[in-house]
What we know:
By secondary structure, the protein is of the alpha/beta class. The chain has helices spanning about 10-15, 30-35, 40-50, 70-80, 135-140, 175-190, 210-220, 260-275, 295-305, 335-350; strands at about 5, 90-95, 105-115, 120-130, 195-205, 225-235, 250-255, 280-285, 310-315, 370, 375-380, 390-395, 405-410, 415, 425-430, 440.
Amino acid sequence: MRRAVVAVAMAVCGFSRLASAQPVTDLDPRITNLVGQVSEERLVALLKKLESFGTRNTLSSVDSTTHGIGAARQWIFDEMRSYGPRLQVSFDTYKIAKQGRITRDVEARNVLAILPGRSQRRIYISGHYDTIAVNGGQSGSNAGTRGRDGIVVTQPADPNAPNDSPAAGVNDDGSGTSLTLELARVFSQSGIEFDATLVFMCHVAEEQGLMGAKLHARKAKEAGIRIDAVLNNDIVGNQRGGNGIVDGGSIRVYAEGPEDSPSRELARFVQRWGMRYVPSHTVRPIARPDRFSRGGDHSAYNQYGFAAVGFRESREDFNRQHDPRDTFDGLSPAYLAQNARVNAAVAAALALAPPAPVVLNDRGQANINRAPSGYDAHLTWTASPGAVAYRIFWRSAWGPDWQHELLVGNVTETTFPNTLIDDLVFGVAAVDTLGHESLVAPYLSAVIDSTEVKTIP
Ligand SMILES: [Zn+2]
């Protein structure tokens, strides 16, 4: 095990001594170039095509070539295939039984494109392509009424008939779907060989309870597939709130806790690297699974133990959600393009980086102690393939954001003398020769099981 005893001055010495092996820059010009390939015009064309299907309700028609979910999923499949030979495009098909909001047995298909990397570990960019319209829309739901504000939506009386009532779903979630398609194009045509495998996923049956995402996440879990990150985009295309307040300069990123959960580390990564490559846009991490009374497909991945965050526009117009009025004229394409650029930067930065170091021992305990003096912070970790350096992060154990960072060399342990491990949270990320940085692996205190005290009656 290579070892560094680090006072700050010593670390700086070590840094210059290892200069040839150290990253020379934080930003990779290939990522900058890739981000620049995101096209607002192409997003507009994709949104208008998605709108043209009239509805993409999971229970809508499958036998038309122009209308309903059957036509929509085939078009998404063909569109991703058209981006070139590097993408492996497929349907991920399930037979969902009648239950809850699924009023009859139905065949449901996620549509995905895989861009293989050097390793099997996966990073997802996703949205849901299905749509829904209900009486009163989301504004009616918010007000606790149905039909007070929205257009009346007629559902078929026969539950076995296709539900083809208008539900264009251009923002919910044509925005996330078009973003996913555009990034499938940009990544697969970039010429970059990524370390991680990228998956561009268009989920189905989100509106009936995250069903497409749950079924896929469960299958991945059962197959032992490693998913390092899911960037889920749902309602990310409109900057004008229904109350008239406009915010085209920021995006919210929801992440479930606790505070150093894998999803929170992913949200921190999104903010750090998204804003480095797209400084004109502000990433606002939100320490919460989602908005009140709302859900999204990232939560399905969380349920199966995967790191997943939900991107949400900053100001929503509830009058246009789950409502026939969710049409193209409610979109802000320049804003959607900015959100797509943030996704592109984050996914590329993560897919080029080494995997995160392992900081837990075989029993799941963090490899941190007070050695050698008994009053020091002593951190060890397992080396990551491809890493030439590691970056240590720390902060007060009262607060969400990393406050300090220090690049150390190609070592697997470090010591901060006279430093209270009990008052700080530490983490470590792996860094490669070009400065690509992994997710941060945090040193967490173990959860202690409560044992009952035996008493004598
Ligand atoms: Zn949605």
